[in-house]
Amino acid sequence: MATERVARELGGLLRGIHHVAIATTSLAEARKTYEGALDMRALPIEFVPDQKVNVLVLFTGGQRVELVEPVGADSPITNFLAKRGPGIHHIAWRVEDLLAAIAKLKGAGLQMIHDSPRPGSHGTKIAFVHPKATGGVLMELVEDPNWAAH
Ligand code: ZN
After folding, report:
1. Is 90 exceeded by the pLDDT of residue 59?
2. How many angstroms is it from 150 CA to the middle of ligand 1?
3. pTM for this structure?
4. What's the rounded mean pLDDT across residues 73-96?
5. In 43-138, at which residue ranges do the beta strands (DSSP E only) sit?
6. Distance in Å, CA 83 to ligand 1 centroid
7. What gap in Å lies between CA 44 and CA 51, rounded to an integer?
8. What pLDDT was estimated at residue 148?
9. For residue 52, what pLDDT is reported?
10. Domains plus CATH for the chain?
11. 10 CA distance to ligand 1 centroid (A)?
């Protein structure tokens, strides 16, 4: 798209928020609220082995929320829930080119959790930025080949 190309040529890195992720102990329980009272539309639950989580993607008004539930004691979400309890886990930014985005952030001296793309849910590629680099907020970069389908 021409707009994307212009933004890229201007050096813009981010393409807005891809999703906000919420950690929960039980997708089955949490989804009742999101699909019930909040009337959000859900994709089928997907297990993401690389992150050891089950993910439930929800949509409303063109925006995307992801509920994440740990699978196993060694899931990063297990630690998060133990320390902080259920709640907002990370903000994910959409990027056109994840490799370029990682290189740019590393070049700017930001500490990454992932130095190379990892497999996310629903065909995405992801990388997390260390919260020490972002004022305590866990941020994820997402390259999503299916974004236009939303
Ligand atoms: Zn995420």
Report:
1. yes
2. 16
3. 0.89
4. 96
5. 46-48, 53-60, 63-70, 87-95, 118-119, 125-129
6. 19
7. 17
8. 75
9. 96
10. 2-149 (3.10.180.10)
11. 26
